[in-house]
Design a protein that fits this description.
390 residues; single chain; two-stranded antiparallel sheet; alpha+beta
Length: 390
């Protein structure tokens, strides 16, 4: 009988400067009049390719659906510089879609009334393979998110920090929650995207693994059994990104303003640096029971900012909004050191204005449940760069 090797292939962890930051932002293109999703992402990228070698534009890429483009920053020391990078790319996309027709750009975890079977898949082998394998669930991935990468200077810190970050999944999920609608239906969830995405194989919460060698064995198991072809197909909510030498936080819904992206990115950057410092000082990072972590994710997806999070091993519960506010206070010294104090303070503004799902619901109520008004609301927020108050 064939047995698994005790020495699986090594996964090199790239050199990365500590607590540097990079952000990926998936944005959707919609028809300006109808609000429907518009499958013109490939046309946008073709125009950019024709315009020559622009190092900023070259980081704008395709995604699973042709109604989407992804904006990807370079590596930055400061969150403000990473967000400025995104805004520059967004301006480039706007110029192109203005040339192509009556289009607008929005970002949320889901489109208020789009239908999955009306969306065209980007013509790339990796996407066709994903759809072939996952079928109905894969075709339903009409969702958008943001990913925040933070540099880890020591590979052996990656998994302990990932495990420590699990405690803050409900905080990040609630702050970013922006998918209360699905195919024209109000779901009752703040983040329907969270539960949709975890239906994909290898997506969702990570497994607790004791060290990097255990992670290598895990990936080797997946490759040997045909579950994945390579490690980037492990689509956990939080994962080590060995290619870049980072921790990648992927749990967040898409957010509709650059100010909110800045605040969430600052929160993630500060959390990682805070945990990295504690490891340097010989501390062990507290890790919640997996069943608490799973329940916390569900509660934040269901109730958003009204969720009660389980915050310690004893099962203590408190409103997630209160815990977020306290966390910002704890992280303020770290934020000053990293140069993102203003951005971290923006988390308090998010608590005051409400998360995107709350603003979308208010926009719909003000328009007698006309969901095209929600699309216009999202487009306006993205264009103005700040969350509007209904």
């Amino acid at each position: 009988m064939e047995t698994r090797s005790d020495t699986p292939p090594r996964i090199p962890f790239a050199d990365s400067a500590r607590s540097t930051v990079g952000i990926e932002w998936e944005v959707a293109i919609v028809d300006r009049l109808s609000g429907e999703l518009a499958p013109v992402g490939d046309r946008v990228l073709a125009v950019l390719a024709e315009q020559g070698d622009d190092p900023v534009a070259s980081r704008i890429t395709a995604e699973l659906l042709r109604n989407t483009v992804e904006l990807v920053t370079g590596v930055h020391d400061r969150v403000a510089d990473a967000v400025a990078d995104l805004e520059q790319q967004l301006a480039i996309v706007r110029r192109v879609i203005d040339q192509l027709g009556e289009y607008e750009v929005i970002c949320a975890g889901s489109h208020p009334f789009g239908r999955w079977f009306q969306q065209a898949v980007t013509d790339k082998p990796r996407y066709h393979k994903l759809i072939e394998r996952t079928q109905w669930w894969g075709r339903n991935m009409m969702i958008w998110g943001i990913h925040v990468h933070v540099g880890i200077e020591d590979r052996d810190k990656a998994l302990p920090i990932m495990d420590g970050l699990m405690r803050y999944i409900p905080h990040l999920q609630a702050l970013s929650a922006s998918s209360p609608y699905w195919a024209g239906v109000e779901t009752g969830y703040a983040s329907n995207r969270a539960l949709m995405f975890q239906q994909l194989p290898t997506a969702g919460l990570p497994y607790p693994l004791p060290d990097w060698e255990a992670y290598e064995r895990h990936v080797d198991d997946l490759i040997r059994t045909g579950i994945v072809e390579e490690q980037t197909e492990v689509r956990w909510d939080i994962r080590p990104s060995a290619r870049w030498g980072t921790i990648e936080v992927r749990v967040c819904d898409g957010v509709s303003t650059s100010a909110e992206i800045a605040s969430i990115a600052a929160l993630v950057q500060c959390l990682v640096e805070w945990m990295s410092t504690r490891l340097d000082e010989g501390e062990s990072l507290p890790v919640l029971q997996p069943w608490f972590i799973r329940e916390n994710k569900w509660r934040a997806a269901r109730y958003g900012m009204d969720a009660r999070a389980i915050v310690d091993l004893a099962g203590t519960q408190r409103p997630v909004a209160d815990d977020i506010a306290e966390l910002v206070t704890v992280l303020e010294p770290i934020s000053r050191r990293l140069g993102c104090a203003d951005e971290l303070r923006g988390v308090r503004t998010m608590l005051e204005h409400g998360a995107s799902y709350q603003r979308q619901l208010r926009a719909a109520a003000a328009a007698d449940d006309d969901l095209t008004a929600v699309v216009r609301h999202l487009a306006r927020e993205l264009r103005e760069g700040v969350a509007g108050q209904q």
